[in-house]
Design the sequence.
């Protein structure tokens, strides 16, 4: 904790934000919405911005946590604090600790960020006072300072942040239950345990469907149905069309990999496994999978059923039915109707990528892997809803 080793007992249900304030008296971490939305409680966990109000304290065992009180010798934060003062980037100060933490992540991770990118990255931190302009100006000021007069310590922080992290995965028996890390056990071990658990609990799926956690969508592909069916059976190729998805291993109809999402400073990477069940005669398949985010310990499982319908000689409709269950701190986001709209938009983009691949527009080696930008997609969804409510001007 802020460079010091700390050991305290904590109930499994206690969130990191409450632990910081009540047990360690680090009251610089502010709790606002306590739903992971406003960003006031953002701290660093292993160098990554994290919502302390929806992260369990026990999930941080063996990790490095940095709060606003722990930046006294941080070169990036020194420049940010001066810039925030210079550009009047704070008023009441309630959002400021979380805002500074996110701003630090931006200036270190995105040295060439422009105003639009800065605003996108800040979208997960809310401020009721400033109107954001001063905050944006302060971040852009620090980025320009580092370009004009580079600080050696600042640059070392940047290199440390972007350096690849290597972890050793140890195979764990499939029957091993997934729990918060025990003393001496790393998150990598949890990831390995998840990767060996492709089975989906049918009872949980039935409950998820009863709760309304089911989505039915479709998209059209301008290619013959047989060609689309053959492509949909190639799991690595399909994964390359899904933003944020990577496959680590592939054997027959089973795959192991990760799906990563990012919403402002909040990010999750669900590592797990999936199994594909195909019915070639009916051109119907079911992808059953389960995964876990190593940081928040949120778990997800689901069935994705897709069925192909020939609309014509060169046109195919792909029907997608999804049933999903989400447990843990991130489960609250599955209850919003916006999530369903977001998934529909994501499936539509997935369909576009499939059409692109079938048309021969393969992704080049130098082209970056597409990622899930929840902020941009959510804004698009909200804008479409607003247009639907008020109607488009003629």
Sequence:
């Amino acid at each position: 904790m802020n460079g010091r080793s700390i050991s305290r007992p904590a109930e499994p249900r206690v969130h990191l934000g409450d632990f910081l304030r009540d047990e360690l008296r680090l009251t610089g971490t502010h709790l606002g919405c306590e739903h992971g939305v406003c960003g006031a409680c953002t701290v660093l966990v292993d160098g990554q911005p994290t919502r302390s109000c929806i992260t369990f304290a026990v999930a941080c065992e063996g990790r490095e946590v940095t709060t606003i009180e722990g930046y006294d010798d941080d070169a990036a934060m020194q420049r940010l604090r001066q810039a925030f003062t210079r550009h009047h980037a704070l008023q009441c100060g309630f959002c400021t600790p979380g805002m500074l933490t996110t701003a630090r992540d931006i200036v270190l991770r995105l040295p060439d960020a422009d105003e639009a990118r800065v605003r996108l990255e800040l979208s997960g931190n809310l401020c009721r006072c400033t109107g954001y302009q001063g905050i944006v100006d302060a971040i852009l000021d620090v980025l320009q300072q580092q370009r004009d007069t580079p600080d050696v310590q600042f640059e070392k922080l940047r290199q440390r942040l972007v350096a690849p992290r290597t972890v050793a995965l140890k195979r764990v028996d499939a029957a091993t239950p997934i729990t918060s890390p025990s003393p001496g056990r790393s998150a990598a071990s949890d990831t390995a345990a998840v990767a060996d658990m492709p089975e989906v609990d049918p009872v949980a799926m039935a409950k998820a469907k009863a709760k309304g956690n089911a989505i039915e969508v479709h998209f059209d592909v301008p290619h013959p149905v047989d060609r689309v069916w053959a492509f949909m059976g190639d799991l690595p190729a399909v994964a390359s069309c899904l933003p944020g998805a990577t496959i680590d291993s592939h054997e027959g109809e089973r795959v192991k990999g990760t799906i990563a999402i990012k919403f402002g400073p909040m990010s999750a990477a669900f590592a797990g496994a999936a199994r594909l069940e195909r019915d070639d005669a009916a051109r119907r398949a079911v992808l059953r999978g389960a995964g876990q985010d190593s940081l928040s310990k949120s778990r997800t499982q689901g069935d994705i059923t897709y069925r192909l319908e020939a609309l014509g000689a060169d046109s195919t409709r792909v029907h997608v039915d999804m049933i999903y269950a989400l447990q843990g701190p991130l489960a609250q986001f599955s209850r919003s109707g916006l999530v369903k709209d977001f998934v529909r938009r994501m499936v539509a983009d997935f369909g576009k990528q499939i059409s692109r691949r079938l048309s021969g527009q393969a992704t080049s080696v130098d082209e970056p892997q597409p990622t899930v930008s929840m902020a941009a997609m959510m804004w698009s969804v909200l804008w479409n809803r607003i247009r639907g409510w008020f109607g488009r001007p003629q």
Summary: The domain at 16-162 is CATH 1.10.150.120 (DNA polymerase; domain 1). Residues 166-200, 364-375 have pLDDT under 50 and may be disordered. The chain has two domains: 16-162, 187-390. The first strand starts at residue 42 and ends at 45.
